[in-house]
Amino acid sequence: MKNIKDYNLDELKQELLSLGEKPFRAEQIFKWLYQEQVKEFDEMTNLSLELREKLKQNYTICNFQILKKQESTDGTKKYLFDVLDGNAIETVLMQYHHGKTICVSSQIGCKMGCKFCASTGIAFIRNLTAGEIVEQVLAVQQDIGENISNIVFMGIGEPFDNYEEVMKAVRIFNHPKGLNIGARHISISTSGIVPRIYDFAKEELQCTLSISLHATNNEKRSQMMPVNNAYPIEELMQACKDYIKKTNKRISFEYALAKENNDNLEDAKELVNLLKGMLCHVNLIPINKIENGQFVKSSNEAIFRFRDYLNDHGIVATIRRELGSDIDAACGQLRRNHVK
Ligand code: SAH
Hints:
alpha/beta, about 20% strand, DNA polymerase, domain 1, TIM Barrel, two-stranded parallel ribbon, single chain, about 35% helix, 11 helices, binds S-adenosyl-L-homocysteine
């Protein structure tokens, strides 16, 4: 049976029509699911008993179980959720001064093979459905007893390798009758799947697009990120420029600094040349340690030098706070898991 959280509002209206019901019932169900956050059809008390029975016969409501919860000294929480098919995924809750942010996973495992990322170490299993992406946020909100304000697609998986379900989830997050989270408060990060960047530009969504760049020439980037063999830097940068032109939106480039790999002034200089004149921002991430990883975090001195060079040459750059690294909840440290 289909999980009812897998439908956006328009699709749910179609479902209701095909059950011989009025489409406005879909709005009532949406409200129960995402505003009241109920777990059972029987809690939807403004629906007739007959309709509730019909819904039970046709759909499930997926409710994740927390298998494990860890809390960092900085307040970051990492959840391991049972996705109800024998697999488990991780979701992270971060506290910033401007509110709470949830980092959601989009796939069970990842195909991208980035050399510095733990999410890719083990085989790819499957895409998450829209409902499973949305459920990560609902389950965390339920656990903490409050609503969160920002969502980043920076957990396990490549969002643009699961494009349709991710877009559907974004629309459920964003819809006023859904979770009602402003698109400006939703960020999607991609390793650089060029055709999907063009698709995303057409979505007319105000979400922030983040691009995992990490290196400024093809030789170095291909060593770190195999996706660069399929979509080399020139194509990626052209797609970014076209995206900015079409949407007039700022792109956020992520650059993980690894000691003596991509952190010297030559790299900073190349980065300035690459990004000069673009409406963008650079997010520098001190690279996080992963098991058997070949990359070591840059020294603070090198990180500040790199940031200052960019800022002095007209590229706005900030250093991302390292939240949750003590519980392996920081960028690149999440992994899929098996339910014991
Ligand atoms: N697959 C998407 C989203 C996942 S990760 C992407 O590649 O963009 C979110 C960010 O963390 C990406 O920029 C990713 O490259 C970065 N990241 C991965 N491993 C990391 C590590 N060990 N240290 C720091 N950042 C890392």
